[in-house]
């Protein structure tokens, strides 16, 4: 109950909530990182809600000719304060909220951290927080939904061990100084601002809930730990190539127009004869063909989609739903190739085709291409 692997802000018999302290105060110790410090040990941190990742890790670790440590998240119903049938649900929520990220460390894969370490299996790897659709009933009694970040606080509010750390704000007290928690965490100047998360009451009406300071600190800790894991895995923020392409095209157009005007001045060419050059966007398929790199964009047989949510959970930047709840490719380069492959493997209708990689520098590309071959 007072273990160093517990979360900041949790309340238990050994970490009471009162004037002297508001639940557990220590920063969570990560047993997986402690195991990695041995350098020669296979490490797998998993969850009962992610059986594929779990079984793969067990097989890989048991077959490794070295010590292995398996660190598995499974909810304790009475201690965590959840219903008896919610163990899998809460374990899944712990992974998605960055409370307990999935990871594997295999020293047999290389000598550098990014060669040995991977965080495959976590949702929205490029983002600090995944997002989810919060369904509610609006003021007219109609069903509605909104996309909100899934932070550690959104996980904590669902368990009784954190319940004393939250307060519901009456609707007439809502004001402009209240800031969504995910946005609040990015602010440098927080004075006069109050973080909140969206939730619903017993009648499924939208409410605002303010987390106490320990929960805010826990969110910062989970976000920073997630960023550390991404760094260890060699995942860096992707450059925005679209803006670069537009800037290059615009610069080329200006240079070309200037040269034409210079030629017109030397040859007494009428100004009206000088064409106005506008940058023309290049379609992705045309660009790939022009480069001759053989790139095949991913695609989905959308009409056969069963709306299982697997792909949109893995990477909502790549996948989205249309008005008929059929999945489609929103942005083929909205994430790593591994997310396309994982989505194809997870798709219950088997309608996702990952195409070919657009980034030849992606980690473990040979293995990903082999896994993707059956879905092309």
Could you describe the 3D structure shown?
- This protein is of the alpha+beta class and 376 residues long.
- The chain folds into four domains: 31-118, no CATH class; 131-232, no CATH class; 241-275; 285-375, Alpha-Beta Plaits, CATH 3.30.70.20.
- 33% of the residues lie in helices and 16% in strands.
- The protein has 13 helices and 14 strands.
- It has helices at 31-36, 51-63, 77-80, 87-96, 113-116, 152-156, 181-184, 213-232, 241-266, 284-291, 310-314, 337-346, 365-372, and strands at residues 42-47, 68-73, 103-105, 117-118, 131-137, 143-149, 166-169, 178-180, 194-200, 206-211, 299-300, 319-321, 327-329, 352-353.
- The strands form five sheets. The chain has a four-stranded mixed β-sheet with strand order 2-1-3-4, sandwiched between helices. It has a four-stranded mixed β-sheet with strand order 7-10-9-8.
- The chain is globular and about 80 Å long.
- The two termini are 50 Å apart.
Relevant terms:
376 residues, alpha+beta, 4 domains, 13 helices, 16% strand
Show unreliable segments: 282-292
Give me the number of helical elements: 13
Oligomer description = single chain
Structural class: alpha+beta
* Strand order in the largest sheet: 2-1-3-4
Calculate the terminal CA-CA distance, rounded to whole Å. 50 Å
Overall average residue pLDDT: 86
Return Rg in Å: 25 Å
Major sheet = 4 strands, mixed
Query: How much helical structure, as a percent, in the residues?
Result: 25-40%
Order of helices and strands: HEHEHHEHEEEHEEHEEHHHEHEEHEH
